[in-house]
Amino acid sequence: MFDIKDILEPETLEKALELLAQNAELKIIAGGTDVLIKLHHRRIKEVELLSLRKIKGLDKISMLEDGSIEIGAMASFAQIFRDSIVEKHIKVLAEGAVSMGGPQVRNMATIGGNVCNGAVSADSAPSLFCLNAKVRLKNKYGERIIPIQDFYKGPGKVDIKSDEILISLIIEKESYENTIGHYIKFSNRKAMDIAMVSVCVVSSIENGKFNDLRIALGVAAPTPIRCSEAENYAKGLEITEENIDKIAEFAVKSSKSRNSWRASKDFREHLIKELTKRGIKETIK
């Protein structure tokens, strides 16, 4: 059924990196929910797969000594949704995780695979953008850590080299402490559909004003984006209905919506404005 030439299943990260260094054509498979669809539609053929399933520890979610939260790339969306650290400190990521497909998909799909797929509709992306997440990449010779906003390069394109594996995502304490977040996904159907538009809002409020406000959009540009113009305008702004409307208008300006078979440009912009307002209000309740 699937045009698979070979599948390798190393049991250690070191072995996996060695195999990648030897063969740049290997296709990494994590949960497999994206790769198998591409194989089914014959978008990739005669592929050699490198499975990360047997490598222990890549699904770990932990609190580091400096208060940063590290989420292993092989953590499934079901695991993220149920994790106590996520629930306590970065619940907005759990909101994105539970909106991902159905239970069967959430049990298999991994956050690393979701990010590396580079899809603008990735349910984890807006929350990770709002949390200023960093991606940790490793090859045989060392590792590098880069902001997730720099990781996305275009539709389906991410900054990962052929010999690298995404090990984990890191969210620093200063990016989640004293904040409240909310994720909203709008789709044609209520279940198991990709987002038409998704909005994440993370806010920090002090004395009736926005101390910090972060807004990220999915399916509003070629990649997930942060609405920097809206965020800069909101900083120190008094919380009023009029100001929330203005912030939402700035969020629309940051978007690069287009017409598609799923929705018109005008409808997407309407959704961005209304969902941004709703997300802001949810965080200030």
Automatic annotation (TrEMBL):
Keywords: FAD, Flavoprotein, Oxidoreductase. Transmembrane segments: none annotated. It comes from the Bacteria. The keyword Flavoprotein applies. It comes from Clostridium uliginosum. One of its GO terms (molecular function) is xanthine dehydrogenase activity. The keyword Metal-binding does not apply. It holds the Pfam family CO_deh_flav_C. Residues 1-176 form the FAD-binding PCMH-type domain. InterPro entries: CO_DH_flav_C, CO_DH_flav_C_dom_sf, Diverse_Substr_Oxidored, FAD-bd_PCMH, FAD-bd_PCMH-like_sf, FAD-bd_PCMH_sub1, FAD-bd_PCMH_sub2, Mopterin_DH_FAD-bd. This is Xanthine dehydrogenase FAD-binding subunit. One of its GO terms (cellular component) is xanthine dehydrogenase complex.
